[in-house]
Specification:
The protein is mainly alpha-helical. It is built from 13 helices and no strands.
């Protein structure tokens, strides 16, 4: 039988829900005020945002940067973490420690350091203009670093949940190459972890402001800041949209996490 929640448990659940939801409800009510009369209720603020060309331009740019960051992160970290679990398990604590560095170093210090580094790379000079002067190069490189902890710990949990050695040995013994083993055997068994890492990266990139602002790139978060400086009600509407994107990514992780692994899944990892 299911245990009933005690009064204290319900009290803390309601208190926590109130703590998180009250600011959102207040922002929603504020965004529904008419910008002329200042009274509720009107969707004029949302109409202003939806009819602003910069809204769609910056939203598209941030989404495309998210997809590129996800692709680069997975291509870089999936083979690396796979090889560490398979051949170099002693390096795992080292990489785990390195994954904590983006949590410790503030983004403002990270972006200043990266700008100085790419402006004058030791032994190579200035980075190419297509990389240094475009969001597709510089911002993606910075976002890969910023998303590193989320990608690593998600993928690491996925690899630890399967028996990497057994799956690899069985695949190689059946004549598969290393590439086929990784793409057809390992990836299907960690797809939930990979999707979780991708959605977390999406949430990070869609909400990142400091790096984009200091590097003078106009992304969706910088657009929200600009609107906030000029229009109060549309700024509240844009903030709620940004929050909704982040929450949609988080809820997607919960839905993906409910799905079990594929037919090749083998439990009993280390």
């Amino acid at each position: 039988m299911l245990k009933r929640f005690s009064f204290s448990a319900w009290f803390w659940i309601v208190l926590g829900a109130f703590y998180f939801l009250f600011p959102l409800v207040a922002t929603l009510l504020f965004s529904l005020n008419d910008r002329i009369t200042g009274k509720c209720c009107s969707l004029g603020a949302y109409g202003t945002i939806f009819h602003d060309h910069q809204f769609w331009t910056t939203l598209k740019l941030s989404f495309e940067l998210s997809l590129e960051t996800i692709a680069v992160s997975l291509l870089l970290f999936v083979p690396t973490i796979y090889w560490v679990h398979l051949k170099l398990p002693k390096l795992r604590p080292v990489i785990s420690f390195m994954a904590l560095v983006p949590f410790v170093v503030p983004p403002i210090i990270l972006v200043v350091g990266l700008l100085d580094f790419y402006r004058s790379i030791p032994g190579f000079g200035r980075a190419p203009q297509w990389f240094y002067g475009t969001p597709w190069g510089f911002l993606v490189a910075a976002y890969v670093i910023l998303a590193f902890p989320y990608v690593f710990f998600s993928l690491d949990a996925g690899f630890r949940s399967i028996d990497v050695h057994t799956l690899t040995e069985a695949s190689l013994n059946l004549g598969a190459s290393w590439r086929q083993t990784l793409t057809r055997v390992i990836l299907p068994n960690i797809r939930v972890a990979a999707v979780s890492a991708a959605l977390l990266t999406l949430a990070v990139v869609m909400g990142e402001f400091t790096i984009a602002s200091l590097s003078a790139f106009h992304t969706f978060p910088t657009y929200i800041q600009y609107v906030n400086e000029t229009q109060a009600f549309p700024a509240a509407a844009a903030s709620l949209m940004s929050f909704g994107i982040t929450w949609a990514a988080m809820l997607s992780i919960l839905l993906v996490g409910r799905r079990r692994g594929g037919p090749l899944q083998a439990r009993g990892g280390r």
